[in-house]
Predict the 3D structure of the following.
Amino acid sequence: MQIGFIGLGRMGFSLARSLLKNKLNVSVFDINTGPVRELAAEGARAACSIADACQGADIVFTMLPGPRQVRHVALAEGGVIHNLKPGAIYIDMSTVDVDTVDQLNDAFTGAGFQFGDAPVGRLAMHADRGESLFMLGIDEALLPAVEPVLYKMGTTIHHCGGAGSGTRTKIINNMMVLCYCQINSEALVLAKSLGLDIQKTFDVLTNTTASNGQLKEKWPKKVLAGDLTPGFDLALGYKDISLASSAGAATQIALPVCDTAKNVFRMALAAGKSGQDTSCLTDFWAEANGIDRIRL
Ligand code: NAD
């Protein structure tokens, strides 16, 4: 099996590396040549263009920042759709909006190819360890071809339905994750302002139904440990919560908590937090309320 992998950033690099560790033949491409060279040193074929990465591939994956880059790489002149071999499967793993994934599905199936979406759950550190979760949207008949390859990069696959259902599920998943960033931040800032011992408060909050995965698993390793390196970059978080907000607007569903959290993300970005982990929202909320940063 020949794989093409395009987009070797924080996530794509680790996912492509997992394929290599599992002895698959992978051609890699990114506009940034650094990760291409690094993976070539680990056995990948370094592709010099999108077309080159698609050359002879049975499955092509893209893992790109957002809708604009995905549409460009997939559909523009020289893009994936113009370079796939007949019968090949194209799977986008990026987090994009509903219109983009539907447009890709129409374009690729219309051109006689197979298309699926497999946005990734869990954190970048899970991708590093080959423990990602995939929200897979694809025709059921393609599962035997696709699932074994995804299992080389992750441990969990949820088949959400046909093409586009992975993206829809991911948008809802991340809306919840990102709302928790704000809820956790408000709770911890209030705890601090009430003079509570943060460790004792944390122990209670993570052992009752108030708990959430972000607070329990991520907060102690990231913002509460003073580690603000992304993980999940605040700017990408803003992109994702905006996708949920737009999906709500498009379907005329009110999302008041989501929209409030989106605005706080926007303010944190304006305060210079881009490039930091999404858990930095707790620092931003402390600063906005005039109290010291909270650490364990
Ligand atoms: P990133 O910005 O680190 O990586 C994106 C990569 O795409 C970069 O290496 C960039 O050079 C490359 N790229 C951009 N335009 C390109 C083009 N035209 N051709 C080839 N390469 C191009 O982003 P990331 O953190 O790896 O996230 C990728 C996607 O995964 C995003 O949609 C994100 O929302 C989603 N995601 C991220 C995380 C996380 O924790 N970082 C977790 C789950 C899902």
Remarks:
- The domain at 2-162 is CATH 3.40.50.720 (Rossmann fold).
- The first strand starts at residue 2 and ends at 6.
